[in-house]
Amino acid sequence: MSKESFIQSIHDKIKVSLTFYSKEDGRSLTRLCAPMDFGPSGRGSDTSDKFHFWDYESDVKPHPLSLPPSQIISIVPTDNSFDPSEFVTWQPNWLVSRDWGRFS
Fold first, then answer.
1. Residues with Cβ within 8 Å of residue 56, at least 6 apart in sequence
2. What pLDDT shows up at residue 37?
3. Main-chain dihedrals φ then ψ at residue 102, nearest 5 degrees
4. Phi/psi of residue 52, each to 5°?
5. Whole-model pTM above 0.85?
6. Residue 66 bridge partners (DSSP)
């Protein structure tokens, strides 16, 4: 999936199947995620672009997941949609503009 397809999944509110290399686990993992944003995370001195997801299937609890392109193995759109109200509990300041109503 290209960056453009990822961004289209944000606009379409389509969940994706994300396979990525987990440095923490030392192996690849696959998770059902909502695509949230693309660009720098704004944390610390790392200003590199990252893919930002809401990870519905984390080992501990659902949470945001930000990965550089180098860790991503595949992003495959699913047939499942998501509602931003499932995870947006803050005042968003998205890098990618979108029409998510009050969650935009």
1. 15, 31, 32, 33, 34, 62
2. 97
3. -65, -10
4. -110, 130
5. yes
6. 52
